[in-house]
Amino acid sequence: MTVTREQLRQRLAVIEARRHHFEWQSKQPGMLKRHEAWRHAYLARPYLIGAPDDRVAERFCHIFMNVMELGSDGRVRPVSHLDTTEFMEIFTHILEEYGARTGGMPPDKLIASARAPIARYFEHGPPIAVEMFKNYQTPEPPYLVKYGKRQFLEPMLEHGTIRLANAASYNDASFLASVRDDETSRTFFIPTYDDRLEGRRSMDFRGQIIDFGDDDIVLPMIFEDYYLFSLCEQIHYRMPTDFGADSALVIRNPGLFKQRLISTFLSQYPEWEPLEGPVTYYDPYRDYSKFSVPEMAKHFGYAYQKEFRIAFRPRATVTSGLAPMFLSIGSMRDYADLASAPTL
């Protein structure tokens, strides 16, 4: 459901009271704690106040997936503040938003929904990654990891047989939620609560009239299909469960691997442009200019995966639909290892 002007007014009254409280507190001895400064920053610009409930609930689940991690001992723990504070910051933002919406915490049903993916790691006992990497000596960085089924990773190790998927094929309802994504579009949201409070329901955006009614502006960015090969920048104990994997191919010489894959592809398709590097994760409500190459960016809900991507995009319009392809880059035995869970 969309948000009415009256709902905006009610929520804004709560937010204004909270904002004044923190501004008063900032002048007292001791100043504001870090989480209180984050809260005040949101209250000064409550970018979610006019978003529909389902969008805010989805965002809560995305944030929840990124504020914790799975350790090598198989235990869930908060993400270290030494790695990043980004998600704890926006977690406090969304708690303030629910304070304005519900007068308290997010609904119990939503919290249970956000926790559900974490429970999957323990459905069959300890997370499979614990056994998979139990006796494996992790190499010094940099290295890359490809998670998957042993039946597919063994040919990759022995013969360099690689399946390159086209981006559009990832938007498949049969995939696990952690894998499924619309890789040929990126969507942004522009808050409109100030305009709506003043009675405006449309906006002139770059010469185009956009009707937003009782919602924020939804801006989709759609681009052409391309090929991509996804890996991870390091060993992550959540990934095998997320990807339905029983094995991992650890690539100890990522430079050699990238060179072989890119040169093999370009020898067949020289008119395509190669791209490679860590994926940039963007917040659709806050990062309007965080990336310039959409093929190398993803929604922040996937940020915990720390993906490294090798992609190929056409320099000219492709007239026919793309389909997955297979490449052979030669044996990887000299610079990669296969780590697998014990078979029963």
Write a brief structural summary.
The protein is 33% helix and 23% strand. With 344 residues, the protein is α+β, with helices and mostly antiparallel strands.
Break the fold down into its secondary structure elements and pairings.
Layout: H1 5-25, H2 34-44, H3 53-66, E1 68-70, E2 76-78, H4 86-102, H5 108-119, H6 128-132, E3 144-148, H7 150-159, E4 161-166, E5 185-190, H8 193-197, E6 202-205, E7 208-211, E8 217-222, E9 227-232, H9 239-242, E10 247-251, H10 254-268, E11 272-278, E12 280-282, E13 297-299, E14 307-314, E15 325-328, E16 336-340
Parallel strand pairs: 12-13
Antiparallel strand pairs: 1-2, 3-10, 4-9, 4-15, 5-8, 6-7, 9-14, 10-16, 11-14
Helix pairs in contact: 1-2, 1-4, 2-4, 3-4, 3-5
Mean pLDDT over all positions: 93
Morphology: globular
Secondary-structure element order, as H and E?
Answer: HHHEEHHHEHEEHEEEEHEHEEEEEE
β-strand amount: 15-25%
Structural class: alpha+beta
Number of helical elements: 10
Helix content: 25-40%
- What can be said about the biggest beta sheet? 5 strands, antiparallel
Distance between the termini: 49 Å
Number of domains: 2
Alpha-carbon Rg, integer: 23 Å
Output the strand order for the largest sheet. 11-14-9-4-15
Number of strands: 16
Unreliable stretches covering 5 or more consecutive residues: none
In terms of quaternary structure, the protein is single chain
